[in-house]
UniProtKB/TrEMBL annotation:
<keyword id="KW-1133">Transmembrane helix</keyword>
<dbReference type="GO" id="GO:0044780">
    <property type="term" value="P:bacterial-type flagellum assembly"/>
</dbReference>
<keyword id="KW-0813">Transport</keyword>
<dbReference type="InterPro" id="IPR029025">
    <property type="entry name" value="T3SS_substrate_exporter_C"/>
</dbReference>
<dbReference type="GO" id="GO:0005886">
    <property type="term" value="C:plasma membrane"/>
</dbReference>
<keyword id="KW-0472">Membrane</keyword>
<feature type="transmembrane region" description="Helical">
    <location>
        <begin position="193"/>
        <end position="214"/>
    </location>
</feature>
<keyword id="KW-0653">Protein transport</keyword>
<comment type="similarity">
    <text>Belongs to the type III secretion exporter family.</text>
</comment>
<feature type="transmembrane region" description="Helical">
    <location>
        <begin position="150"/>
        <end position="173"/>
    </location>
</feature>
<keyword id="KW-0966">Cell projection</keyword>
<feature type="transmembrane region" description="Helical">
    <location>
        <begin position="94"/>
        <end position="112"/>
    </location>
</feature>
<dbReference type="InterPro" id="IPR006135">
    <property type="entry name" value="T3SS_substrate_exporter"/>
</dbReference>
<keyword id="KW-0812">Transmembrane</keyword>
<keyword id="KW-0282">Flagellum</keyword>
<keyword id="KW-1006">Bacterial flagellum protein export</keyword>
<feature type="transmembrane region" description="Helical">
    <location>
        <begin position="34"/>
        <end position="51"/>
    </location>
</feature>
Amino acid sequence: MSDKPDKESQTEEPTEKRLSDSVERGDTPNSREVTTFAGLFAAVLFFYFFLRSGARPMVAAMQNMLDQSGQYQIGAGRNALHLIDATMRAVGQFLLPAIVLIIVMALVATFGQNAPQIAPERLMPKLERIAPDWSRVISMRGVTELFKSLAKLLIVGLVAFFVIKGEIGAAIATIQSDPAGLAEHILDVSTRLLSGITLAVFVLAAFDFAWTRIHWKRDLRMSRQDVKDEMKQMQGDPMVKARQRSVALERARKRMMAAVPTATMVIANPTHYAIALRYVREEGGAPKVVAKGQDLIALKIREIAEQNDIPVIEDKALARSMYDRVEVDMMIPAEFYRVIAELIHFLNRTGASGQQQQGRSS
């Protein structure tokens, strides 16, 4: 059975996690036409802003060397090195702007499409890259790439045809009237030709940029089961989470029960609710709830309290009210200060213990 995903079942749009996982693997949408446009645009900038100004110093340097050629002895090593150095300096100064422009535009084209990302998986050699599956080579993507290449050739050919066609007559006239200006005319035609090609490639690059991203997201589409599995992976298996919650509650319950022997009193209702309060003057602050519970837990709290000789005071209204208002490890709110103070005063005065329960009317 094939392990390839069933495209017909992949009807759901990719989730943010699937998209981010793809980016982390280095599988990002990257349009080659955008890079091509960037290189051509760099060339256009060079032609318009640097070619003429940069060519003049180089031509002047060459002219100077030719004018002084009689002073050089080519056989002498120092003279040869001087000629090479002067030539390289002139050519380097001429080409430096072009090199800088190409590098800058290449970086803009690359990082403008996708943020820099180090993907170790892309660096590992894979057999399918060496021996690709021909079913993948002869695929819709391959056909699309072929059509894009043909479109580029057609666009470049048409632009070149219309630009050159309109300049043939002007070139012939320039040769007849001003042969020295032919080079300048050719440079102008070349600049217009390059500009036209760059503009056409820009349109193609914009289309390819959008198509590449659409196709990338289409390849990452998910089936409904994939979405469910991802949600389960992110949120956790409900059964496992329920088990974890159960374990956490059991641990919290054990800690709470372990704190009951430290309580000063337990307020009960009489079997449905139980709240264990701790108050020690030296500790400061208001009385604090160290344990509370309903039904079986309430009975367990009372049992532990009686085993540790802690007074249990039955007051239905107070027990119910405090149960709803105060959580474990919280100090009681101000509204309970007076009644709890009276109970503490009563316990201190009578010395009531777990065997001496105080009943209060509800």
